Amino acid sequence: MTLEFGIPLSRKRERRLLGLAAMFLLVAGCGNVSDESNGESETSSDAEAAAAVVVLPPIAVAEGDGLPATLPTDLVWETNDQDPEFASPNAVKGGTLRSYMLAFPLTMRLVGPDSNGSFSGYLRPNLMGPVSFHPFTRRAIPAIASEWAFGDDGRTIYYRINPAARWSDGEPVTTDDFVFAVQFMRSEQIVAPWYNNYYTDRIRDVKAYDDYTYGVQGADAKPRNEMHYNYAFGPKPRHFHVMTDEWVQEYNWRPEPTTGPYHVGTVSKGRYIDLDRTEDWWADDLRYFRNRFNPNRVRVKVIRDQNAAFQLFLKGEIDTFGLVLPEFWHDKAQGEEFDNGYIRKYWLYNQLPQPSIGMFFNTREPMLNERDVRFGIAHSLNYEKVINTILRGDYERLPTFQVGFGEYDNTSIQPRTFDLKLADEYFDKAGFIDRDETGIRVREGQRLAFTVTYGQPHHTDRLVILKEEAKKAGLELELQLLDSSAAFKKQQEKKHQIAWGGWVSQGFSPRYWEHFHSVNAARNQTNNITSNADPVMDELIMQYRTSSALDERIKLAQQLEQMVHDSGVMAPSFQVPYTREAAWRWIRLPEMIGTPTTSEIFNTQATSAGIFSSGGLLWIDTESKEETLASRKRGEKFEARVLVQDDYRS
Amino acid sequence: MSLLNLNPQTVKQLKRFRSIKRGYWSAVLLAILLALALVAELLVNNRALMVSYDGEWYFPTYARLLPGTTFGLDYDYETNYRELRNKFEAAGEGNWVWMPIVPYNAYENDLTSDRYPPYPPSFEAEHYLGTDSTGRDIVARLVYGFRIAMGFSVLLLIFNYVAGIIVGCAMGYFGGAFDLLFQRVIEIWSNIPFLYVIMIVASVVVPSFLTLVVVMALLGWTQLTWNMRTSTYKEKSREYVSAARALGAGNVRIVGSHILPNTIAVIVTFIPFSIASGVTALTALDYLGFGLPPPTPSWGELLSQGTNQLQAPWIVSSVVVAMVVVLLMVTYVGEAIREAFDPKQFTYYE
Q1: Residues A393 and A517 in one domain
Q2: Spatial distance between the Cα atoms of A291 and A595, rounded to a whole number of angstroms
């Protein structure tokens, strides 16, 4: 009885704890292989006896699509062995890294219901695909594939896989596993509509030419790096999956073999999960993977409260801890463990796409459909005060909707700042001249008041300051804090006035179609939460979407970004172009600490920030661990250290 | 004591209540606190009580918002009276500002760029108990939070008691199938887990003051029914009821004018405890984040801030002390009332 009772509770809790996830990670329909599934529905299977094995149909190809029957002979095979190595040659293998998660996962599957928990962040990077991306040059580097070639239709890639590649259970990786991946992802048995759609709509064909050569055809022509990014999905082990209508239940606790450095070892339900390093990992000596993924084991413990986890970190029961939040970095991460040099603090500036966060104005709503009102609001938001007070000056102002994509960025855009004179001008122009007895502007009985819908309880502090400051401009903001999934739903259905939150951005280039195209303004359940609809913009967006010429795409992206800014449908808030963490002194890093694309310094996994191969640089110095613990017992001190890496600061 | 038309029994009970010192003084103190909370705008506010500017007097407290331009300042938004006071003092032109004792309201973020909130208590800054994590004055949050919590409890109490008394009396008075049916209904109803219902409601809509009262009243009215049913049942069999009926009084008259006054002791003794449970319930909900929407001042919200920021002990200690004191006083009052209304004079409650 207690068990039955416990399950929905922990499910609820997980959703709550992943406060940001609902808001930020559900970049639904973002078109990204490593993206999250939205599959939440239950299986339709009834509880009959042993379910029959389902034979997945061969790859169906639509008219106009399809790979050639034989491998083209004129292909130019490429690889990348020129980019610099970045791991430290001093790294030593061994030891256990102890980490934590806030809730035990509800499944070990990576697709299907409940497969989006935080633990999937440890599993997904270990499903290595054919290529990865160099963390400095951002070019494709060989992973399972050792060579690749592009077809002349602009949307086809051929990969030649490394014969040494093995699954963690010892079976060789073959091209058939890539064909199976598409069959698998298209199948109904996995109960993952998002993946079903992606692998049908975006991946049009896959074909194995021999045991080591296969081809993929995508939907649209794209620049080459983006082709890899969008179409280079990882393999699925055909020998492991027996597809039945009960697949979701049968494979709920059966971790899939991996192609990456770690696989799931001991699982102690509700307590911890071990990720063990695959013995004699096939990629150990590859150019970009040597000296990486050093700990033999990563133990991820369940600690249900962040503050409790921090206390355990101070005791030395967890090796590393994230300190991005100002209150952690400045206030909580203080004291003898830090002063005596047992724990070191690290601050690494990176160059990753920034989440597009801020206030999004729903132009379906009265008043908000007037550009002057939107501009007025933008000038009434005192983001600078929030940054300089409660955020300790640590965050920076986000200049526009999407930044952090290198040459795609439109750097000429300056954000609208808190300026009562300008706000006054715009509101006056919109006809909001008089103020009522509470000091809020009115126009023919209509008050200048809006509801701000948000789902992150810890953002209340920021919003109350914005609210109080906005009053000075005669603007009233009502705060509406909802459960994160309820807030997300409300925004997707466009029932909000102003949405607070935003989108995680990944990949090589900014996205406009899902956020600003009029097709998505008319429909509900889309990411165009501003209901932006502009025919001129639509045309440019479609040009941008179908163009495969890099120069043209850059020009279009910058033009589109300018249009977003000029429309004022969004008031961008903050960016955090860095990560901050702390670790016990026995956790060692290369001198450079991290790469420009490192999203988490002490990430042990193959990729971080979704695509770049920047994880797994740390190693554990066992001698130093003994020394530190002994010194701590004796009360001896080391030099206190705060390491700042700002070489990549833009 | 020349009490109005109170019957001797009531007079005796009141006298007895007075004689219980702890409860009596708690009641007096609570009454004073409540009265002060009702006029909190005069004591804890960022608006001045009185401004004398160029020979004219202004009373901004309850008036419409006065923009800075009223007093020769260069902005259209609400005057910052603390700055105005300093300005007038520095200028020395005979203008003056009379500020309340605590010159902050519960919403205002008093932030400076050289230090980061929460700020510790400071007499110089007139933050007598310090500020919370966004620079809001803790005294102001406590006082306005107290007023809201008390208002909430009283309103909830009225809803609960009206429903509880009507249903309870009807059950006891009519008995039979009606009684049996309602007993079962109430048994089932009172098994609905209140916290879960609130959590569900809070995830769908932003709970406003009134929706919270209504939801909690919907789930809370059953408590009083059992007691009312029992006492009505007991009174119903008394002779005065038969007499009233013999004289031709209707059901409503019998229950309303004859039975109810005789069960008043039951109702009155429960009131303070209901108030206390209302305050705790609201605080608990706010603490968990299912209560009143931000930025409403609330003790639960302060408590949750305080426990998250133990490095700023003034937050958690202020609110804990305030809660303990208020709940203790309410409980003392309740205890005294119970004793005063107890027909068995010589029973002692520990």
Answers
A1: yes
A2: 15
Provide the CATH number for the domain around residue B226: 1.10.3720.10
Give the pTM: 0.81
Least CB-CB distance to B295: which of A437, A438, A479?
A479
Q: Tell me what ipTM this predicted complex has.
A: 0.84
How many angstroms from the chain centroid is the CA of residue A554?
23
Give the chain A residue whose CA is nearest to the CA of B286: A457
Share of chain A above pLDDT 90, in %: 69
Q: What's B127's DSSP letter?
A: B
Is residue B153, in this structure, part of any structural domain at all?
yes
Does the beta carbon of B289 lie under 8 angstroms from any beta carbon of chain A?
yes
Over residues B5-59, the pLDDT tens digits come to 677 878 888 888 999 999 999 999 999 999 999 999 999 999 999 999 998 999 9
CB A155 within 8 A of CB A161: no
For the segment B103-146, what is each residue's pLDDT rounded down to a tens digit? 999 999 988 877 888 899 999 889 999 999 889 999 999 999 99
Q: How far is CA A373 from CA A42, A474, A563, A573, in A?
A: 44, 12, 17, 18
Measured distance CA(B44)–CA(A380) in Å, rounded: 27
Look up the domain containing B286 and give its range. 8-38+140-341
CA distance A123 to A119: 7
CB distance from A483 to chain B under 8 Å? Answer: yes
- Residue A465 in contact with partner chain B when CB distance is under 8 A: yes
Name the percent of chain A lying above pLDDT 70.
92
Identify whether residues A467 and A614 lie together within a single domain. Answer: no
- Residues A265-296, buried b or exposed e (16+ Cβ, 10 A)? eeeeeeebbbbbbbeebbbbebebbebbbbbb
Query: Using an 8 Å Cβ cutoff, are A133 and A612 in contact?
Result: yes
Residue type, A509: S
User: Which residues in chain A have Cβ-Cβ distances shorter than 8 Å to B136?
Assistant: 464
SS3 content of chain A, % helix, strand, coil (to 5): 30, 20, 50
Tell me, what's the pLDDT at A468?
94
Measured from the Cβ of residue B317, the count of other Cβ atoms closer than 10 Å reads 14
